[in-house]
Amino acid sequence: MAILSANNVTKSFLFRKEVITVLKELNLELLPGEFISIVGASGCGKTTLLELFAGLTLPDKGEIYYMDKKITGKTGFLGYMPQNDLLFPWLKVMDNILLPAKVKGLNIKEEKEKARSLLPIFGLESYENHLPWQLSGGLRQRVALARTCMTGSKVWLLDEPLANLDAITRMSLQDWLMSVVKSLELSVILVTHDIDEALYLSHRIELMKDGVFHKSIYVTGEENEAEKTKLKERIRQLL
Ligand SMILES: Nc1ncnc2c1ncn2[C@@H]1O[C@H](COP(=O)(O)OP(=O)(O)OP(=O)(O)O)[C@@H](O)[C@H]1O
Ligand SMILES: [Mg+2]
Q1: Complete domains list, the chain, with CATH
Q2: d(C-alpha 34, C-alpha 173), whole Å
């Protein structure tokens, strides 16, 4: 039974008086505890799909379901980290993390307690009062992820969360993300351009092209180097 699903979603945009259909009766089911990576060429509609899941936009056709509940066009059910998530430079780490709660008008004292209990998971306990520019790129991404975590949702949608990081930071954050996903028992949809990252983190890689998912690649995590190379080659050919 899926925890999150897109059923036959179609989404078009009007661009210079022309209708461009980005998603064409697309289907995706995320199972509880599953980690899916979406890989596809730039402009193929990955962000458009995550925005539909997050309820920020409406599909022309089709529905989004979260645990059997129709959430099409409704926000607040899922943890969503947008592409190029920016922290507000004038707000301290804690205030950046609390911002969505403030916008929603939640009880800030309670939310702060919750955030404090999350900080160690994100390795941010000694950075509560830092400003974003005082942090490394990896730490900044962790603050953005901590903010995503504050929704309390068991489903995370991450749009290239580790892009723009150097290779070493990126690899250590991949390990860290994997451990957080396990300890919080999350189900995740990750958008990435990095095939190695997708292979390392996912149970399933969905390849997006021409408005649909045209191939699913299942990853056991038990593959040896030769098998991984073969999978990578196959994904490159399919893209
Ligand atoms: N609000 C909008 N108005 C018009 N066209 C849009 C809008 N949002 C997205 N598009 C178009 O829809 C297509 C898909 O965009 P989207 O951002 O989903 O791509 P993407 O797969 O996330 O790409 P990238 O890998 O570069 O982030 C692009 O052609 C884009 O120009
Ligand atoms: Mg995108």
Answers
A1: 4-78+153-238 (3.40.50.300), 86-151 (no CATH)
A2: 19
